[in-house]
Structure formats: C-alpha cells, structure tokens
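Section 5: illustrative case.
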C-alpha cells in the first residue's frame, strides 16, 4: 500500500464542489475507501497489492456519482458494510444544478473472503430537488445482530433505522434527523438535530437489550458560556463515555453514570471550522479526530443556500488539525490543508485522507469533482511526539458580526512556546479561561487581562491544558495565536 500513489485529481462526478476520500477501513487484510464524487469504492488487498473498484451500478445505471460523504462504514465478521448515497444515473443541467430524481441512499456489503460486492439496501423518493436521508453512520448492534443507520442529510426518511443484515429490510426506530452515533456499554447514543439549521439539540439513547429509547439534553459548558451552532461531525466512545465532536468543541459524558453531556470549548471560531464530514477512531485507548477549516462553503457571495453564509464558511482561521483526546489531555498531532475527510489505523500507521476543496451549495454544481484528494501515511508515534507548529488568525470584526464574545479553546499540551497577540482599536478587558477535558467535568479557572489599544502579547506558557477567551465588549481588530 505504501508504494501506491493515492492522489486523485478531479474527474467526472456531477455534484456540489468536491467530495473526498471517505470510509477508510482496514479489515481482514482489505483496505476499503470510497472516492466521491466519482462514486468509486476501492478494495485493496494489502498483501497481494491487488485492487478492485466498484462503480455503484448495482444501485442503478451509469454514469454514477456520489458514493459517501460522511464515513458510513462498519465491519462485522468477514464483511465490510458501507453506505451513503449515489446518483444512478447522474443527471447534470448546464444551469449549475444536478437533478435528484435518481439519488439513492444505499448500504452495500463487501465479502472480504470472496472478494464480492452485494447491494443490501437502497431507497429513493425520486424527487427533482429533494432526496431521502443519506446514510451518514453505520453502527453494529451485537445483541440484535443488525446494523443501525443514522440519517440526517435529506428531506424525507430521516432518523435512526434498523437494517436486517440478511434480508436487507430497513425499519425506522426514530424519525428525528440524526447524523452520527456511537455504542457505549449496552447503549447506542445518537445525536439528534439538523446540521444546517443549528446543529445538535439532544441525544437519544437506545438500550440494545430492551429496545427502549431515552432522550437527554446536552448540558452546559465548562467555561459557563453559551455555545453556538454545534453541528455534529463525529462521535466515538472511550472511558465508558460518549464523545460528540461538534463545531466549537466536544460534548462528553454518560447520563447512565450520572454525568450530563458537558460541553468543552475546543477550537471555537466565528467560522465553520469544525470536525465535520470526518470520522473519529480509537487509537491507543484514546480518540483521534480532525477539525477542518474548509469542509462546506458557499462558492458565490450571493448564494441563496439557506443557513450557510459566505463569510462564515470561507474565512480561514487556521490549518485543519488532527486532535488526539486522552482525558484530561487534548493534543494537536497533525496540521493539514483545507480539510481531512477520513482517518484509519493500519499496521502501525495512520492513514489520513485529505482534500483541497470543500463541498459547495445546491446551485453551484459542476459536472466534475473540483478537489485534489490524497491519502497521507503517518507513523503512529506522532501521538507521542511534540505537536506541529500551528497558528490561528481570528478577525475580531467577524467575531462581532457573529455576535460572539467567547472563542478559542486552544489545546496547549505538548507545546513549549505559545502566545496570543491581540491587535485592538480600543482598550478592553479580556477574560482567559483555563481548563482541561477532565472526566467528570470540572469548571474552568478565570483570569482577567487588560488590553490596551494597539498590540498586546499574552504569553500562554503561563497557562496549561486548554485556553479560551472572552472579550468584555465588542472591539475591532484581530488576534493571532501561535503554538510552537
């Protein structure tokens, strides 16, 4: 695998902007991933170095496009289950729109012993502009020997579905939109909410033994301040807790252990910088995921797409970063370009799929994928080494425009030098919050700093763990945060 040049320039694949490499999974000697928007599922035998590709034509006629853009993949026994959505066939109009009459949600299964692909389930509402909920996550229920499908992106048939592994019959369990889930002990937690109209609003928990559901509202933040637009990107479990990575931070906890889901502000900026369209994996007993700077965006300033604004989606505050969570520590372990789309562990290596270009809006389709995508191979030892140099640049004017005063959540673990440089037009007071990802959650410590008009350098080496910032009032200027 290391000899292969996994670089993919844009090719035919009508959709909105760029897709990416999704669903990276190494299982039974097979490395699987789907290349979107080309709708190509790849299966590489690691020992023989032989590779098979599948074009999703079991769903419908060619030319196909799409595949998966949320990392919907699960493994059971010798099988790899992969889901998502696909146009079959794709119909692109010259006015920049793609028609959705042939868009299907799907789940396929790859038999690693036989080397064969089978279509397990598909669904479409055959509408010109609307579509059935995409499959954005697949979770195995070992008690019921079934797979659970999370579906949030779409207009109909949203929620959590149960899919029979043998018959391919899908049944709804809840009908509220749910993008992601994770299994903890004998319960499966799912985030509920719409990622393009506000984000996560509650957690639903399915008791895998009794089949009963319970609902839990997310709790407050360790810094005591509100959080905004917590779009849910990835979920994982460790330490008998569920972790829900959202725009602006992470919720962690387990109500069945007497802990509410507490919000830890992490890499929170007045932009769409978020752990979105990426997965989270367990490595070394902890959790590894990514926060991306440019995953979804409006291409044109006058785009009519509701809920997504040009400044919010196109202002780049810093690189995309790999984040390793081993409570109470949160550590940056990698720095990348526009976005990270998938992560996997294989043979002492970490495979990181990246992309140069975001998804775009409904009226901004092209007949080809617009990004350059590749797979970066890293050694697992990066988890134990010093973190890479990273800097963030935040416009305080954009902070004001977003009606935010609290931002940041910068992980300092592993850095020998760190500072924040505030350039402000007027005097102001700055509150600095210091905390870590302790379980159970603890409250943040606070320190107030006086900012004078002009350049102010704050030495962050006097702080530890994670630091967040709050301005007492709206102020013009910018801040640059440097980690070395």
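Designed sequence:
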């Amino acid at each position: 695998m290391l000899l292969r040049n996994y670089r993919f320039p844009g090719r035919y694949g009508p959709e909105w902007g760029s897709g990416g490499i999704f669903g990276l999974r190494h299982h039974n000697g097979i490395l699987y991933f789907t290349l979107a928007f080309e709708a190509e599922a790849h299966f590489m035998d690691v020992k023989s170095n032989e590779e098979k590709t599948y074009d999703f034509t079991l769903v419908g006629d060619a030319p196909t496009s799409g595949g998966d853009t949320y990392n919907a993949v699960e493994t059971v026994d010798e099988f790899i289950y992969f889901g998502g959505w696909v146009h079959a066939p794709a119909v692109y109009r010259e006015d920049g729109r793609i028609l959705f009459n042939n868009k299907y949600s799907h789940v396929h299964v790859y038999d690693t012993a036989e080397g064969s692909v089978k279509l397990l389930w598909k669904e479409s509402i055959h509408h010109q502009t609307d579509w059935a909920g995409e499959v954005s996550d697949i979770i195995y229920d070992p008690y019921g020997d079934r797979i659970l499908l999370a579906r949030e992106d779409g207009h109909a048939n949203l929620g959590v579905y149960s899919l029979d592994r043998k018959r391919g019959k899908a049944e709804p369990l809840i009908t509220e939109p749910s993008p992601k889930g994770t299994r903890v002990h004998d319960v499966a937690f799912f985030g509920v909410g719409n990622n393009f109209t506000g984000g996560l609003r509650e957690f639903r928990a399915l008791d895998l033994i009794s089949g009963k559901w319970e609902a839990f509202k997310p709790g407050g933040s360790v810094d005591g301040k509100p959080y905004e637009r917590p779009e849910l990107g990835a979920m994982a479990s460790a330490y008998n807790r569920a972790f829900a990575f959202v725009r602006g931070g992470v919720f962690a906890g387990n109500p069945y252990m007497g802990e509410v889901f507490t919000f830890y502000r992490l890499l929170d900026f007045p932009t769409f910088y978020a752990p979105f369209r990426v997965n989270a994996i367990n490595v070394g007993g902890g959790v590894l995921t990514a926060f991306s700077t440019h995953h979804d965006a409006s291409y044109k300033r006058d785009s009519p797409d509701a809920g997504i604004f040009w400044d919010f989606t196109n202002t780049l505050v810093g690189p995309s970063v790999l984040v390793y969570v081993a409570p109470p520590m949160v550590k940056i372990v990698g720095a990348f370009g526009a976005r990270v789309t998938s992560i996997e562990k294989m043979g002492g290596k970490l495979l990181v799929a990246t992309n140069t270009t975001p998804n775009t809006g409904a009226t901004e389709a092209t007949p080809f994928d617009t990004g350059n995508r590749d797979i970066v191979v890293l050694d697992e030892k990066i988890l134990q080494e010093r973190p890479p140099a990273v800097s963030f640049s935040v416009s305080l004017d954009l902070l004001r425009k977003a009606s935010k005063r609290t931002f940041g959540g910068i992980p300092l673990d592993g850095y020998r030098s760190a500072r924040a440089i505030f350039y402000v037009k007027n005097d102001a007071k700055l509150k600095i919050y210091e905390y870590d990802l302790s379980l159970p959650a603890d409250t943040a410590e606070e320190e107030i700093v006086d900012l004078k008009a002009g350049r102010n350098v704050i030495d962050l080496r006097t702080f530890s763990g994670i630091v967040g910032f709050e301005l007492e009032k709206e102020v013009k200027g910018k801040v640059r945060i440097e980690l070395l």
